[in-house]
Amino acid sequence: MHDPASRGGWWRAAFLLVYLLFAILPIYWMLNMSFKTNDEILSTLSLWPAQFTLEHYRTIFTDSSWYSGYINSLIYVALNTVISVTVALPAAYAFSRYQFIGDKHVFFWLLTNRMTPPAVFLLPFFQLYTSVGLMDTHLGVALAHLVFNVPLAVWILEGFMSGVPREIDETAYVDGYSFPRFFLTIFLPLIKAGVGVAAFFCFMFSWVELLLARTLTSVDAKPIVATMTRTVSASGMDWGVLAAAGVLTIVPGGIVIWFVRHYIAKGFAMGRV
Amino acid sequence: MARIDLDLAHAYGPNPRSDEDYALLPLRFTFDDGGAYALLGPSGCGKTTLLNCISGLLRPSQGTVSFDGRDVTGDSPQARNIAQVFQFPVIYDTMTVGQNLAFPLRNRGVPAAQVRERVGQVAEMLDLSAVLDRQASGLSADAKQKISLGRGLVRHDVAAILFDEPLTVIDPHLKWQLRRKLKQIHREFHLTLIYVTHDQTEALTFADQVVVMSRGKAVQVGTADALFERPAHTFVGHFIGSPGMNFLPARWRDGWIELAGRRYAPPADEAIAQRLQAAGAFKIGVRPEYLRLARPDDEQAVPAVIERAQDIGTYWIAAARLQDHAGGAGVEGTDGIVGANGIVGADGSPLLRARLGDEAAALRPGETAWFSVFHRHTCYYVDEELVR
Amino acid sequence: MKPINQKAWLLVLPVVVCVAFSAILPLMTIVNYSVQDIISPERRVFVGTEWFRAVLRDGELHDALLRQLGFSLAVLLVEIPLGILLALSMPARGWKASAVLVIVALSLLIPWNVVGTIWQIFGRTDIGLLGAALAGLGFDYNYTGNALDAWLTVLVMDVWHWTPLVGLLCYAGLRAIPDAYYQAAQIDGASRWAVFRHIQLPKLRGVLMIAVLLRFMDSFMIYTEPFVLTGGGPGNATTFLSQYLTQKAVGQFDLGPAAAFSIVYFLIILLLCFVLYNWMQRAGTVAEEVPHA
């Protein structure tokens, strides 16, 4: 069946091509730069390296101050994603299935946290985390990111859960399932797309966040985002290494998108980002 | 109004090899100008595919579609000048009812005065005059379907109106109203109407001719009567009628029909008898409406053990199991056939369903009753096809 | 109707605890600071609403607020139409759909500082493709020295970064429109523009409302990307609200005023958030009118 939505001919394809070029070019440029020597970067401008080099990547993979940044980031992002989704699941179920005192207000309050500028939390976080000894730890950043990721996860999961008919819950109870068993063996498989989407967005927002991650860490848990910005203020820009570092930060994101590509449209369809 | 000739097939992929590769097996059929047709069949039988080939939303992978002799296979729906009503109401939310109805005319550049007149006429016909100025999105589902239908009627020269299960979202008590409206429109405008449905009541009451489809194949075309009396295929016998036709497995033995271990006279028609003899094993088809209780001493009566008799209200349905001659419930040579009603006993004996009057009240489960099976309404099937 | 069950609170408790720890405690600290003059950790003086009054009178704050509003408005004016166009041009099915989806969504997954870095490099006339191209075409382009250039670069960077969000939301919205609508429009002889105006746009209404409000809110909180790209300059030409607050809080360590400002900032967002929430509830009910077939 010819796709009726795809009429409109050549302008669509042309526009898409131009946009894709627009989307890719800056990234490509950075990729390009990461394979050039610093001399070449500063001297000539070309669309591909005249002297292809892997020295910048080598620097990153061998210099612990660089690669530890990636590892730190991955650790707290993973921690955050796991915690966010885990605590969000029962809460989303409650919002989806029951009414209780203050339910609408709590839901709204959760959303406001997604909407709060991180800058507002800078100072108090700094002091709070110092006082409980969570400064410069992976857990600290993971917990800080809960502020905006947990509401998002609850919101997304609630949407998916509401799509599951209540009759399934009732049948399970009639059949004698305990709540945990029902939740794990019956309910969860039904909403696995939702869990995937929620995990994707938690990963995304935690991975990209700079302000809190930089403020709450100094050495031990310093994420790659902080390492890179520090490089910028250091004397003498090491463009090549910076570019290579940037390219490497895109890789985990690219991998995650590839795996959840089928669910992306579904997640956005919920209108909950 | 147009005559529509089809000579086509539609395969899923580029190189169809077996029947499964086809969504529509090769089909040749003519829809007469001004006729009302139904495409009837279960989900997945290809009826919507066929409808879309007629309307132009789908191009068949092989063959042609012609309107009044003109080949339109490559033409868009617009060029073919057809109208289609979909399963759920398709209306333009941003417009009023009147604007919705006027839309197809405006797109064709019809002058405003004519548009107004025509919209008024169609609205009158569909009882929508009162709501012409209301936002279409606020109306009930059946009103919206009428608007969808109206957009098709509003064009003078529409070749045919195609319906794809249009009553799906309508409340049951409003369905018959809309059906009546459709028949009324057919009588008044003499339009070619093609109606896709899986509901046999809709098909049989709406259409002059019904095309029964199954798995991409047009199994039988005929009037409601023909489909009821002489189903060309066991599928049609099973699908049409509520409950469907009974199918009893039988054999030819020494010039007699052997059924349930007993002998019965062969059919009077020589041609049929010869085919049955040649086939050896075949099925006897008889509708529940035509099964009557017979006397035990009637040579042509078939014994069966009553399982239950249900009082439906205006009639009774008696379900009984065929016996063999020895008196046990069990029939040789059934080789795992699923009876017309889908029921086979654990011992393989087919189930008979009979539609009876109040005489069924006297039947008790477990007792043997005698049914008259062989008469002029009885059909014979070899390899699922009717023997004529 | 959902059954009433107060025990459901137990299910919600973990979430409340986690978020409260990270949200309520800090907020209480801020409220605490906002009404005190903290001369040193030991010496604090209660000053009541003085900081609030000072903040609301602050000329620099007004400037930053105006810059912020201008920026957010510009962002909306570009990103929403562009996002719709993007969604309309993305293929609906097949391997091409997946490939385009991945390329388009990529910019959303780049750490925000790297976004800034990418454009920092891209815009330089000595080592960046864009900068060099513009210079080659004769433009006197300098995003560190020229305020207009800085604004435009920050804007283009944000468009590059976030249009895919609008695009993907609209794309999902478009996919939810059943084929029958397009088929009926084809049969009715509707033009391409009529299809957009009468079928696609109305069905996108809900999604667009969400996109508009999300982009407005998020752009209102923007910090990292402009900070990395221009540092807020030249001067304070691209210093938006979040950066202004951060400067005050961390840079100058004026805890009292910074805390007061934080609360004002938070209240502005809260108001916008309230509007967003209600609009989306209504959008949700509108979206349910689209039949599922």
TrEMBL record, chain A:
Keywords: Cell membrane, Membrane, Transmembrane, Transmembrane helix, Transport. The chain crosses the membrane at residues 12-31, 74-95, 107-129, 141-161, 182-208, 239-260. Belongs to the binding-protein-dependent transport system permease family. Residues 70-260 form the ABC transmembrane type-1 domain. The keyword Membrane applies. One of its GO terms (biological process) is transmembrane transport. This is Carbohydrate ABC transporter permease. One of its GO terms (cellular component) is plasma membrane. It holds the Pfam family BPD_transp_1.
From TrEMBL, chain B:
Keywords: ATP-binding, Cell inner membrane, Cell membrane, Membrane, Nucleotide-binding, Transport. Pfam families: ABC_tran (PF00005), OB_MalK (PF17912). GO terms for cellular component: ATP-binding cassette (ABC) transporter complex, substrate-binding subunit-containing. GO terms for molecular function: ABC-type ferric iron transporter activity; ATP binding; ATP hydrolysis activity. CDD domains: ABC_Carb_Solutes_like. SMART domains: AAA. The keyword Cell membrane applies. Residues 6-240 form the ABC transporter domain. PANTHER family: ABC TRANSPORTER ATP-BINDING PROTEIN (PTHR43875:SF14), MALTODEXTRIN IMPORT ATP-BINDING PROTEIN MSMX (PTHR43875). This is ABC transporter ATP-binding protein. The lineage of its organism: Bacteria, Pseudomonadati, Pseudomonadota, Betaproteobacteria, Burkholderiales.
UniProtKB/TrEMBL annotation, chain C:
It comes from the Bacteria. It is a multi-pass membrane protein. The chain crosses the membrane at residues 69-88, 100-122, 150-174, 206-224, 258-277. CDD domains: TM_PBP2. SUPFAM superfamilies: MetI-like (SSF161098). Gene3D superfamilies: MetI-like. Its main location: membrane. InterPro entries: MetI-like, MetI-like_sf, Sugar_ABC_transporter. Residues 65-276 form the ABC transmembrane type-1 domain. It holds the Pfam family BPD_transp_1. GO terms for biological process: transmembrane transport. GO terms for cellular component: plasma membrane. It is found in: Cell membrane. Keywords: Membrane, Transmembrane, Transmembrane helix, Transport. Belongs to the binding-protein-dependent transport system permease family. This is Sugar ABC transporter permease. It comes from Cupriavidus cauae.
